[in-house]
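Lab intake sheet, docking and co-folding queue.

SAMPLE TYPE: protein with bound small molecule
LIGAND NAME: magnesium ion
LIGAND FORMAT: SMILES
REQUESTED OUTPUT: full 3D complex as structure tokens
PRIORITY: normal
SUBMITTED BY: R.K., bench team

The fields below were copied directly from the construct record.
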Amino acid sequence: MLAADTQQVQWWLAQRSLLSGSVQTDEALRHTTLLELSDQSRLEILRIIASAGLGHVGGDFSVIDILTTLYFSVLNIDPKNPEKEDRDWLILSKGHCAAAIYVTLARAGYFPQAELNTFMKPLSFLNGHPSRGKVPGVETSTGPLGHGLPVGVGGAIAAKLQKNSRQVFVIVGDGELQEGSNWEAAMSASHYKLNNLTVIVDRNGLQQGDSTENTNQLEPLDEKWASFGWEVIHVDGHSPTSLLEAINKPRSDKPRALIAKTIKGKGVSFMENKAEWHHKVPSPEQVNAAIAEITS
Amino acid sequence: MTKELFDCRVSFAETLIELASKDKRIVAVCNDSIGSSNLKEFAKLFPEQMINVGIAEQNMVGVAAGLANAGLKPFVCAASPFLTGRAMEQIKADIAYSRSSVVLCGMSPGVSYGELGPTHHSIEDMSWMRAIANLTIAIPSDPNETSSVVQWAALSSEPIFMRVPRHKIPAIPGTERAFDPTKAHVLREGNDVSIVAIGGMVHVALDAAALLEKSGTSAQVIHVSTLKPLDEKTLLSALSKTKAVVTVEEGTTFGGLGSAVAELLSQNSPTKMKIMGIPAVFAPTGSAEFIFDHFGLNPEGVAKEATALIK
Ligand SMILES: Cc1ncc(C[n+]2csc(CCOP(=O)(O)OP(=O)(O)O)c2C)c(N)n1
Ligand SMILES: [Mg+2]
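RESULT FIELD (auto-filled):
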């Protein structure tokens, strides 16, 4: 089992205190700092996918600003004590974006960053989809789509029963929402008045082979969630400010869905909005071109 | 000696395209799996014969049942772990119990998706499907057999589950013939030990027998293509010639080929056996080849177990 990297946790704590209350934070500065942290993660994601020769770079880049915002500015977690009882849960239901969550967890110090070099290599803890029990910080194994939300609902009901302050966040892909299990869970969540549960839809408009609307139409997506009894907020999934504003709004007694407008492949022009970059692996030249764009 | 290797999704798609061009009842049913099932060309040629329901396997199998019951001939093409695991009850109630004429095509089965991890491995599909009554299970061992199973399935009216291998495998002798679901085939005679293999492990069994011959052991190799119903006659008569039997499959050792052969032998002529496959663990991270080697599912590993069994 992987263990925390305490030095890295110190670094992460320092970033967090910079970004949250203790120093009077300038909103604009917080925004740009989070985006810088996110771009650093993009470079790491690119590196480990190129090294493995496998991965889902498009979805990683569409979700990484959301993950960075949550891990560096929102979640009540302790990477040194990943099982802390009142911790918040983050479930990345679109488990194919394992590289994004692995890089984020490693940067928060859950395990040594050197471990990222083993991504998808023989005997690694870091296979192509995150597994609970293999990787600290992973609350449930994902990979088959449509599993995260029901487990999140269970965690949120338990928190109510246990009078635990836990907040549960579940990130789902938009294509993933074609799985019926999400909608069964959505009904349970409003039935149980789970105002400790937030779903973030990574609304990049693409799934594996095509756009969601060409495949199995999701729109009007906000009306769907609302009719299932959820509070719905539209946000910009590449804007920490937009995400934080929605997350920090006072809660009603409803579960909350953030529909986060995103761009698949965000940050690298030749990957953006292209279905083929769902799981295409960049060539060495493309890696260099991508690095140049991300660092420019 | 390097053998040519094949991704069976190629011959699968070629055959389905050929059939679909002549028979408009044939439809492919997908779950955002057009690319991973190698059906982009099919979708381009026959847009009306491609029904992509999106990422929704339970719906996919139910829809296929409806299409079939209305007179069409659906081939459901989806990654095997999600097709069989997610839609198991639809397969049982809507397809098998309702005798719906649907062909379930488990793409990229076994450990094809090696590095992606156990959620994407489909080592349970043969066991799960075998437990369901009224479902014929055909497991092709190479591209020719993949093609002949598709041709046979298109004409059959029974509920069928087939695997479509993804990681590359060589051709097996004798598979050019038309598919006969009632027959297992003895590929190599031998009298010390028998190796019974299925799917992508048939070529491994043949190579193991060649290795065994070098060390003075005469191994018989039996190629099972239809896992259910099993060709009991061929198996009982062939297996009675040797005093021990090794089974090899790209799947869990619980409930698949090994179990089927053990059920047959233990109730007819108990024989010493070794069941090779993936034991009761979730496989470690690694490519399909790495995982095969890890569990001894290679010619050396099979030869070693066969030798140990008859010692
Ligand atoms: C149950 C299931 N069916 C199919 C797949 C194969 N698959 C992996 S990712 C993917 C597309 C996901 O699209 P989306 O949810 O929009 O994710 P993103 O665009 O963020 O990558 C598909 C079909 C799967 N992992 N699980
Ligand atoms: Mg998407």
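REVIEWER NOTE: The mean pLDDT of chain A is 96.
SIGN-OFF: pending second check by T.M.
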